Amino acid sequence: AKIGVSMAKFDDNFLTVLRNGMIEQAKGMSGVELQVEDAQNDVAKQLDQIKNFAASGVDAIIVNPVDTSATQAMSDAAAAAKIPLVYVNRQPVNVDTLPDNQAFVASNEADSGTLETKEVCRLFKEAGKKEANVYVIMGELSNQAAVQRTKDIDDVIATPDCSFIKIIDKQTSNWDRDQAQNLMTNWLSTGKKFDGVIANNDESAIGAIQAMKAANIDMKSVVVGGVDATQDALAAMQAGDLDATVFQDAAGQGAGALDAALKLAKGEKVEHKVYVPFQLVTPANIDKFLKKN
Amino acid sequence: MPDISTTDIVLKTENLTKRYGGVHALEGANFELRKGEHVAIMGDNGAGKSTFVRQITAVEQRTSGQVWFDGKEVNFAGPIEAREAGIETVFQNLALADDLDVPSNLFLGREKVLFNLGPFSILDRKYMRKATEAALVRTAVKIPNLSNTIRHMSGGQRQCVAIARTATFASKLIIMDEPTAALGVQETAQVENIIRTLKDNGEPLILISHNMRQVFDLCDRIVVFRRGRIVANLRKENTDGQDIVSYITGAKTGEAELAA
Amino acid sequence: MPDISTTDIVLKTENLTKRYGGVHALEGANFELRKGEHVAIMGDNGAGKSTFVRQITAVEQRTSGQVWFDGKEVNFAGPIEAREAGIETVFQNLALADDLDVPSNLFLGREKVLFNLGPFSILDRKYMRKATEAALVRTAVKIPNLSNTIRHMSGGQRQCVAIARTATFASKLIIMDEPTAALGVQETAQVENIIRTLKDNGEPLILISHNMRQVFDLCDRIVVFRRGRIVANLRKENTDGQDIVSYITGAKTGEAELAA
Amino acid sequence: MAQTSHGVGGVSYDARKRTWPAEFNVFLALVILVVIFELIGRVFLGDSFLFNTRSDVSGLFNEARLQIIILQVSIVGIIAIGVTQVIITGGIDLSSGSIVGATAMIAMSFAQVATVNGNPNPKAMFLAQGWTDLPVIVPVLVAIGCGLLAGLVNGALIAYTRIPPFIATLGMMVTARGIAKWWSKGQPISFPTDSFAAIGKGLMPVIIFLSLAVLFQLIMTYTRYGKHCYAIGSNEDAARMSGIKIANHKILVYVIAGILAALAAVVLSSKNLTAQAGMGVMYELDAIAMAVIGGVSLSGGRGSIIGTVIGALIFGVIISGFTFLRLDAYYQEMVKGVIIVGAVVLDQWRQRMRALRG
Amino acid sequence: MAQTSHGVGGVSYDARKRTWPAEFNVFLALVILVVIFELIGRVFLGDSFLFNTRSDVSGLFNEARLQIIILQVSIVGIIAIGVTQVIITGGIDLSSGSIVGATAMIAMSFAQVATVNGNPNPKAMFLAQGWTDLPVIVPVLVAIGCGLLAGLVNGALIAYTRIPPFIATLGMMVTARGIAKWWSKGQPISFPTDSFAAIGKGLMPVIIFLSLAVLFQLIMTYTRYGKHCYAIGSNEDAARMSGIKIANHKILVYVIAGILAALAAVVLSSKNLTAQAGMGVMYELDAIAMAVIGGVSLSGGRGSIIGTVIGALIFGVIISGFTFLRLDAYYQEMVKGVIIVGAVVLDQWRQRMRALRG
Ligand SMILES: Nc1ncnc2c1ncn2[C@@H]1O[C@H](COP(=O)(O)OP(=O)(O)OP(=O)(O)O)[C@@H](O)[C@H]1O
Ligand SMILES: Nc1ncnc2c1ncn2[C@@H]1O[C@H](COP(=O)(O)OP(=O)(O)OP(=O)(O)O)[C@@H](O)[C@H]1O
Ligand SMILES: [Mg+2]
Ligand SMILES: [Mg+2]
């Protein structure tokens, strides 16, 4: 079977693992041909890729949506061409009205920031803090994961349990380690006392860690949280710099999406929604994740 | 000063001065031009002749001084205003659009249109082409293909297009900065004819030229610039080439006042 | 044809032809220049004079024809090669870098350096400034501030810089395309002096000019272009201004062969 | 020798030997590209790029592919029309992609429905104000207003402060992207009304693109506006001395570019049924590349809308061709860069040959 | 009136009335910006932007802030040096950001350690080949090689095919980004050796940036290379007719730009201890903006490295100032755009005043 895959972007660590999970899976099967395209974070490009797949007559399409609210048009395009469609990693807005030959495999983004922030909150309490000041490093502001994870932080801090946490400032690093490093250094130059950094992703968390280390700050005295559980992050956690991150089963999602697509291509029925849960990673359970992502 | 609006003075400058950084290119120029008069401006290279023209036509803003034109004091904000007030100029650097063809250049800024739809007016291309051919015939220049862009014209062809443009549109004052410098024998003769026609029609003109014969042939009065100053202002009848040269070179000095 | 390397012919073209699309700008030009000879090229605007120069100096590639220079057939790939072979040219459009000052322009492409470090050689700025002043004095032009950029020079000042550049460096052939067009009385006289000096030194020269007096003053032979063709080739002694004009205008036709 | 003397005479002129229009080269590049894809397809994949090889579909051509080739470049193509006239005047517009983003966000928030599947629209910006289910003209006018405003700022900056267009529009690029993110604080805006959704449905983007292209080709060729664009791009000083009102003209040029970007935003968000702050990133570069591939000179004064349309088609063929060849996505970008350069090299090479040989 | 006659005489010339160097305007913009931040800080936050207000640190100035202002622009600044000389020759380089990305990936894969925290390095590209723990000179040379190659391709395309630099470097931009993604198939490359990590540590990036800036300021002012850059940018035809070997010179210019981008990549990946395919996105625009803010003319022939350094500092002050003021992230981009434009407007305005008043 010919399967067309449109990924939101290629130069994203997490999505790369997901994509490779899919490719690995396909290699093990005979007669499965994957064609993976890079939408370069452009909704319109992605929609056009689906139409190009249709013009090439693929048997099924897997989409890792750039923008989960743009999926209606994609579902329509695939339905018009009578080609099965599977969304992966990001939950489409039209999830409840998907046609029969469409499905999605995703995680609930609302969990990631929540798990992260709750762990940070727990660590503060463990250290006996009555008051904790944190900096928040956001991802790209036009990205929904960044918006959602930031909202998760606000939501957790709004609960009475963690209301002792105060956000000094939140700024964006555009997911980028260098920008996070510069941002953190700028914050350090204000001389404000702070107890932790909550970042929307691991790269930003690592950037902040590097900046703090350059300023000779004792990493034991600060709590740093990230999301993604990348190899770099796990190494940073082993080194005692990073305190919390959140694992999302990228490879599992990729493989699951391919499975669903193949079944739909054969005309079989599959579940409309498959949730793959996020998992919190701490020094305590890190060994479980070292070989993943 | 006398009420300028009642006299027959077309253009008058007082103390016109222009500095570029430390370069004093033009210093206190007092100049008058009367109705129907043709005045020549001569002078060394770098004497400030073109600078003088650029101040009058507001291509640059003067450092100080005043200008009266057509009966009232003027402070043009730019060359457009000068042109709208009635000053047509052939600049030394020609001011042609290299990528446009000859008719487009001739009518640049005052295209003939079929319908008026503001900026989106439809051009009357046929008319402009015909009118261009007619205008160029007057300058005797030969241009093999009018649709070629100005970029591909010879030096003299470019100059003739610029002159044809100035001569085609009615105006109150014509200024020509070395119009025949690049022209051949025939073309020069034709352009001189054009200037004579203007004289007959009573249109005033300022002619900048290094050509002594031409100046004595065409003009009533000669103004000499030297080192940014007007050093002589002489009626043609009261002077000769030798005299002018000595003012240009500085052999004679002191502002020579007009006899008449 | 005779073995050119043994004769005293510096430059020879045979059937030199250049077309721009449908425009036949130059048609089968046969031209010879001998050692120490000064030849003038005259002709209408657009007659193909500058085109002729551009083919010889390889600013453009010719459509057909052959060129011999200094004893051998040449096919320069560009103006650099022509210059390296020994042809110095004052182009009609001057070829100056607007944003550089006068010394930089004069020495452009052959800067004097203190140490040779390849492209990163250190410039000898003092020397170049001094040499520039000396070169400009020969042209009699006045430039108030040598550090001003060429952009801010008057038409004649620019032309003098270009001429000074050509006259400063030794060469086997000098070509000047209307060098005095923009020059004042004094400057023209000086440039004519420079040309006379070249004559005395036996350096051959091609002078394009519309100025009949100048041509008869300075040159040994006059070649007339008309509509892209060479229509006359006359020794100065065998002709006069009237004659030349009739060739230029086409009143006389047929290729006038050289008497001598 | 059939020679005629045109214009007002002079050296002989052979009217039969006309020079090719510059667009011809670009068209040639397009054809070469299509033939290459067709050949590779036939030889290596046993499939056809342009022709129909499926039994379940009728027709000579692979119509789905022909459609997507032009459909996928229609939106950037609309921007490229505006960018073309900007470049012809000697300017550049880096802000068009960001204007698309900001305009899409703002316009879409006036095109939302009140209820989705029976529930209140979770993404509606102005639910509280009741500004939902508005007639389609409202978001379109809002978009045009946004584009006009952005263009006005660009144009006024360039015309009055004389800063380089590169900087003025770079500033607008950063600012408009900021506005796009700020408008809904990064949230996408979705669920438009059916009438708004109709704008970008099916082949509508293509129709809009081609109509605008024809309109502007006529404007650039036959009106005073077009003539002045070329004049300013060719020699701004000359144009000024000739009495063209440079400032007014430039402002108009950038306003038109802004409005076209805004129209592109409307079509884009309608086609995708959503607006998000990241929309239109890098569109400005694609639009400029389309224009330049189509023969528009970045130093101003030369080019045409037809050329730009062909340039856009080259882009479309490249994208579809890659998918058709199932080229690994990693190689696609590399090859795309090479093809962009190749198309311009071919054009340049033919022009030079012409100039040299005469 | 003290008037002296300079040069070779002519109209009177007042040498005392010298014109300001163009860089002065830019420096003024920088000072104004700093003063604004200082004032806003004092008035609204009760804190100082530049001066030390902390009791636990000694010194008059807030040294941490002074450092970060320049540190955070050092890497783009290195690129901007190369871009400046490209723009002075009348070109443009859109590929520098992508060259950073591709070079960082390739160089970093030769700078990896074999074991991390006792385990084999999970990210090592060449673990199998045993190319780990190599001396620092290897990745640096590899990087320089990459930059040289990219610059050579840019330069050769521009010099020999005569396509506009915008297109040649746009092609390289797309291609090099493709290479960056393809090199490790999207995976980041991390865990460099300590000696490699030392390159970007602490204030090293600042030192590298400023040394290169001084070197190139001297080259542009005092060598034949610099003179020819200005000549070509000023009038390419004139430069050609004057016998400058345009093709060779242009290639050299783009090669230098490529190498500087590669050095920036080394510093960047060393500073971040990782290389990622997305590194350097948009750096090219920031670098160009720094140059233009610093007074480099996009039409070529005018500008200086000093100006670019001041332009870079303006960027640094903006970024740090925003964080200092705790400006909402959504507004930052909008305001950044406005400030970029404002800096250039100020410069242009002063130049015009000077030209008009004389
Ligand atoms: N923009 C400028 N900046 C600085 N100096 C300038 C500028 N424009 C002209 N100058 C200087 O002012 C002086 C007068 O120049 P102008 O062009 O008026 O001379 P001109 O009399 O027209 O000479 P020509 O006969 O050669 O055309 C010259 O020395 C010139 O170098
Ligand atoms: N690049 C070009 N493309 C098309 N036509 C050209 C080009 N260059 C020159 N021509 C045409 O060729 C003819 C000869 O031009 P050329 O410049 O040789 O004239 P010229 O004799 O030097 O005239 P002038 O005395 O005015 O300088 C002219 O008709 C001109 O329009
Ligand atoms: Mg002058
Ligand atoms: Mg000529």
Automatic annotation (TrEMBL), chains B, C:
Protein name per UniProt: ABC-type sugar transport system, ATPase component
Keywords: ATP-binding, Nucleotide-binding, Sugar transport, Transport
Boundaries of every ABC transporter domain copy: 11-252
Pfam families registered for this protein in UniProt: ABC_tran (PF00005)
Sections of the chain in a coiled coil: none
Family classification: Belongs to the ABC transporter superfamily.
Listed SMART domains: AAA (SM00382)
Record InterPro entries: AAA+_ATPase (IPR003593), ABC_carbohydrate_import_ATPase (IPR050107), ABC_transporter-like_ATP-bd (IPR003439), ABC_transporter-like_CS (IPR017871), P-loop_NTPase (IPR027417)
PANTHER family documented for this protein: CARBOHYDRATE TRANSPORT ATP-BINDING PROTEIN MG119-RELATED, SUGAR ABC TRANSPORTER ATP-BINDING PROTEIN
GO molecular function terms attached to this record: ATP binding; ATP hydrolysis activity
UniProtKB/TrEMBL annotation, chains D, E:
Coarse class of the protein's main subcellular location: membrane
Transmembrane spans: 26-45, 65-87, 99-116, 136-159, 166-183, 203-222, 251-269, 305-324
GO MF term list: transmembrane transporter activity
Cell compartments where the protein resides: Cell membrane
Keyword Transport: yes
The entry's keywords: Cell inner membrane, Cell membrane, Membrane, Transmembrane, Transmembrane helix, Transport
Entry membrane topology: Multi-pass membrane protein
Gene Ontology CC terms: plasma membrane
Superkingdom of origin: Bacteria
PANTHER family assigned: ABC TRANSPORTER PERMEASE PROTEIN YPHD-RELATED, ABC TRANSPORTER PERMEASE PROTEIN YPHD-RELATED-RELATED
Protein's recorded name: Permease component of ribose/xylose/arabinose/galactoside ABC-type transporters
Lineage: Bacteria, Pseudomonadati, Pseudomonadota, Alphaproteobacteria, Hyphomicrobiales
